[in-house]
Amino acid sequence: MTDHSHSPRPLDGITVVSFEHAIAAPFCTRQLADLGARVIKIERPNVGDFARAYDSRANGLSSHFAWTNRSKESLSLDAKKPGAEAIIEGLLAKADVLVQNLAPGAAARMGLSFEALHERFPQLIVCDISGYGEGGPYERKKAYDLLIQSEGGFLSVTGGAGEDEIAKAGCSIADIAAGMYAYTNILSALHLRNKTGQGSRIDISMLESLVEWMGYPMYYSYDGAPPPPRAGAAHSTIYPYGPFPASPGETVMLGLQNEREWALFCEKVLEKSELLQDVRFNSNANRSANRDELRAIIVEKFGELGTEAVIERLDNAPIANAKVNTMHQVWEHPQLKARERWVEIDSPSGKLPALLPPGANRAFQPRMDAIPGIGQHNESILAELGYSADQINDLKVAGVL
Question: How far from each other are the two terminal CA atoms of the chain, in whole angstroms?
């Protein structure tokens, strides 16, 4: 097997300066770092990115922070103190990309808008990430992941059927959506700069990112039509598609997509071919309308068979299925282990496992470097900008670093 540990990465030589906190921007810049970009993370002195304090579950580190901040350099900087502006100017003179997800209007007040920077740094790409984007009545409205899940309609179609059973996603999907669109837009802006020689401005809205993901329920509800009903972990409009109990305490996730699979399911899994002639179940619309009756039949059969036998029959049919794994089971997932997707990275509190980035490219190995401590790279970064040890010490004493 060819060793690609020293092969060039796609973003080698690209420098990203990021005024970032929480998830959306850090998740974006971590993807850039995975591809080889140098990411300089600007943090508040002593406190750092407030996501560092969310919890201490990853060997003393915050779970959110460990997930989104590997392979970065941390520069602690109080941007409001005298002397900070010169440091920022020096960083941007050498940067390719500036990313920020500060409070609405904060970056502009710091002189970090694209309009303020473009004349001095014409090749600089500026990516602004906010809850609602520039302009419009919500421009200055504060936004967090759960609030965007609410505004974007996600909560209205997620959870149980009861009025009080709405549910949020178990991970930060609005932040993730915005982070991924920021990441792909930055890649396209770099490609555009190769053609034009000019940097450009990217305006990423968390709301728009999540609403893009809501395309199916939105079109399903188009022109005043009823929205898809909340159905817990089941599919709201396709049936049977969702969780079914089998052995005590165990659940099988079943996925049927079409009439051919329904026939196979009846014949090879349930061994009840007569259901194919039952008018209650002879189309997806009818199965969905009569899901309670069909669920009772499936649950009874699955209970007789037990989990392993059910999965064996489903695999042999073949019908799509999955186990409902816990987080502990995902850490030990045999497929991830077989594909060698886990590696170890360093952190301020020792070694941690990390999943290799999705999308294995055999031409290079992704960058999987350490998670930084607050201000860990102050001296090395400032030395590159021409600051002497005495000057760096003076900045520390003045509270700039």
Answer: 46
Cβ atoms of 79 and 107 closer than 8 Å: no
15-214+357-397: what CATH class? alpha beta
H-type alpha helices, 76-205? 84-94, 106-109, 114-117, 145-151, 173-196
Measured CA to CA, the distance from residue 325 to residue 143 in angstroms comes to: 31
Confidence band for 1, pLDDT divided at 50, 70 and 90? very low
E strands in 209-363:
241-245, 251-255, 320-323, 342-345, 352-355
Are the C-beta atoms of 227 and 220 separated by less than 8 Å? yes
| Sign of CA pseudo-dihedral 67, 68, 74, 80 | negative
DSSP state letter for 55: -
Average pLDDT, the chain: 96
Residues of the chain with CATH 3.40.50.10540: 15-214+357-397
Q: If one looks up domain 241-323 in CATH, what number appears?
A: 3.30.1540.10
